[in-house]
Inverse folding.
């Protein structure tokens, strides 16, 4: 069975200053007195949070954004400080009940690193965690994102278990919401043989350790970036192994209404979604969105259609007794916390109707 190379090429895009600080300091910095204070929630936000089912976990992608001052943080803080010390304040917000740990995509994390996160959030908080690119990307990449060579550990069950699932189970435990295998865009040659990819994915899912005992609310989910995956054979693989489709709201994929048949075919069950990028920016539009939306403190491109569609899925899933895990990126509408509030209002308004 293929295993990860001893010295793999650097993986995927360059990291931010805050991510570099996390990689260099989180492992060695002992717990400290919190210096990032949460923004006090007003009565309206508290009431809105009270309308949501405890099964509904909505949040953002990461938490290191100074522009969230007055929304999530009570004061002005640097990106690096928020990356290191902001999670506790983030989790104090009544509507932010999950967060997507994207750092794990760039380099596998240890159980001890996960445990540091788990210790900073309340018992009802649940994490969405991205699998390392070491497992999910079909190619090894240079620092600028260029493919260097085929990845021998692509969808390898042993590597996935040892580098991702088991450390997450050991460190996060019951606070796992969804462990997400996001499969980046595939080389053309691989996409010519999708049945082989479905078989490979099935072998991976079959070999992963069960989450049931350590993380009874946790699910394994698969997110993709190529529409070639969105066919009945993909649905059958997920269903056969009890995995969920992570609804990917990204311009590389069809819009949300075109992805609903796949969700319906896998009903009932937990709902996992990562709302990554507004469609107006196109498949390569992260940098354009970042430039247009920074400092991420207002809704620049509101998308009420997507919000309402998500709200319907969230209401139906929670009403059926299944958990919901949704993360929203700043690049979805301009400000992830404000998107979360608007989405919660769309969910809560119908629940109270």
């Amino acid at each position: 069975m293929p295993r990860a190379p001893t010295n793999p090429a650097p993986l995927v895009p360059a990291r931010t200053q805050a991510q570099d600080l996390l990689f260099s300091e989180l492992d060695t910095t002992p717990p400290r007195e919190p210096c990032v204070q949460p923004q006090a929630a007003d009565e309206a936000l508290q009431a809105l949070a009270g309308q949501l089912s405890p099964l509904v976990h909505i949040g953002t992608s990461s938490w290191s954004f100074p522009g969230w001052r007055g929304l999530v943080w009570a004061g002005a803080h640097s990106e690096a400080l928020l990356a290191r010390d902001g999670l506790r304040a983030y989790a104090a917000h009544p509507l932010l009940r999950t967060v997507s740990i994207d750092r794990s995509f760039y380099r596998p994390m240890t159980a001890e690193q996960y445990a540091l996160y788990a210790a900073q959030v309340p018992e009802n908080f649940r994490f969405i965690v991205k699998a390392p690119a070491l497992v999910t990307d079909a190619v090894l990449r240079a620092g600028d994102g260029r493919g260097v060579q085929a990845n021998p550990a692509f969808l390898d069950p042993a590597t996935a278990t040892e580098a991702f699932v088991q450390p997450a189970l050991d460190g996060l435990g019951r606070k796992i919401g969804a462990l997400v295998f996001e499969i980046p865009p595939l080389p053309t040659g691989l996409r010519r043989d999708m049945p082989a990819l479905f078989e490979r994915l099935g072998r991976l899912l079959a070999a992963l350790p069960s989450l049931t005992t350590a993380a009874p609310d946790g699910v394994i989910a698969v997110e993709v970036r190529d529409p070639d995956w969105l066919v009945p054979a993909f649905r059958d693989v997920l269903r056969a192994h009890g995995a969920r489709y992570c609804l990917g709201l990204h311009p590389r994929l069809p819009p949300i209404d075109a992805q609903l048949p796949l969700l319906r075919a896998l009903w009932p069950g937990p709902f996992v979604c990562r709302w990554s990028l507004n469609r107006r920016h196109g498949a390569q539009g992260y940098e354009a969105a970042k430039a247009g939306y920074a400092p991420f403190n207002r809704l620049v491109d509101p998308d009420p259609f997507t919000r309402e569609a998500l709200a319907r899925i969230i209401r139906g899933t929670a009403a059926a007794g299944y958990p919901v895990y949704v993360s929203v990126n700043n690049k979805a509408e301009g400000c992830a916390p404000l998107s979360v509030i608007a989405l919660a209002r769309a969910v809560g308004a119908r629940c109270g109707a």
Notes: The two ends are 54 Å apart (CA to CA).
